Amino acid sequence: MTDGKRRRGLMAASALLGGVLVLSGCSGGDSGDGGNGDSQSQVDEAAAKKSSEAQIKITPKDGSTNASINKAATVTVAKGTLTEVKLTTADGTPVEGQISADKKSWKPSVQLERATTYKLSVTAEDSEGRAAHENASFTTVSPANSFIGTFTPDDGTTVGVGMPVSINFDKAITNKAAVQKGITVISTSGQEVACHWFNANRMDCRPEKYWQEGSTVTLKLALDGVEGAEGVYGVQQKTVTFKIGRNQVSYVDAKTKQMKVTQDGKTIRTIPISAGSPENKTYEGQMVISEKFKETRMNGATVGFTDDDGEGEYDIKDVPHAMRLSTSGTFIHGNYWGAKSIFGNVNTSHGCVGLQDVKGANDPNTPGAWFYRNSLIGDVVVVQNTGDKTIAPDNGLNGWNMSWEQWKAGSAV
């Protein structure tokens, strides 16, 4: 064979081998499409045209952590309607929820739990009845990574004119401005309200002067997702309203040993009292009633009054008509163990303000019973002429002992 013929034979063999390789490299078979893959594209395109147009969106995204217990597990659909939504905990416990009337959205009927993993399974249909499916799993924020604020007064209550909004956080707040911006306090009286941080865990809010009687105050907590400290997020979404009652302010004069109870500035009753003894003077200042007890125990050991054996200098287990004025243990309360002659004449207590009363708290005609019955949480008791220092503003709900300028200087915004 000449060289020319040999070369032509190799070229033909190579072309034939190439044809075999091409044929073996495509699994389309005898499609008649020339081996260019057009038929597979057509199949894929046809399948896509047959799929549902419904577009499901789940919040939060699949795999999310630190999800909100209020806003998580929301489902919406575009170009279709929801037909089935299932939310369960990781162990399969179902969570109640509701599809909206227009079948365009869904949300849980209950607040989610913290530190819990949830699974969502969603089905929707488009206008031609073609189904679309979506699944997601997420974990809600843990107690370690979230904070809540315990607030007073309670929703729906009627309180005295001195009642501040007081919020105590269960975690130290370092981003005070962000948290304060998530809290609003407004009054129907139109009074300006300012908030003051006493420390990293407590913020109180009040107007410059006492609340206007008969007004309604609204507290809104929009703290869900607010980062109060690094990696620590709020979870509360809540609105609280409370009403301000009549304007009652009582004035205790330790020098005259009398208390004048006023409403709208007019004295409605004068009551003889016995304040703290010269050795145990009562704090001076504006104090707000924060708790009321028909009867309670008062043990001197709990507030530092002990004898040589370490026992309380007093332990009275049935103090009648007691109303707290400070966190440290100052009360205005009934006194049945003292002689009637001390009231209006001698200051004998360990720092409380005593009113004549009876054991058992069952006589409605005693001064102690009358004052208890006619007092609200949030009423103001102004204590004067004791010779002691003014009570600290954060010792109870007693921020009124700060000037308005000092109060606003403690705001973070």
Automatic annotation (TrEMBL):
Pathways involved: Cell wall biogenesis; peptidoglycan biosynthesis
InterPro entries on file: Big_10 (IPR041280), LD-transpeptidase (IPR050979), LD_TPept_cat_dom (IPR005490), Transpep_catalytic_dom (IPR038063)
Keyword Cell wall biogenesis/degradation recorded: yes
Gene3D superfamilies: 2.60.40.3710, 2.60.40.3780, L,D-transpeptidase catalytic domain-like (2.40.440.10)
Coiled coil: none
Keyword list, A-Z: Acyltransferase, Cell shape, Cell wall biogenesis/degradation, Peptidoglycan synthesis, Transferase
Active site (UniProt): H333, C352
Keyword match Iron-sulfur: no
Domain spans labelled L,D-TPase catalytic: 248-384
Name of the featured protein: Ig-like domain-containing protein
Taxonomic lineage from the root: Bacteria, Bacillati, Actinomycetota, Actinomycetes, Kitasatosporales
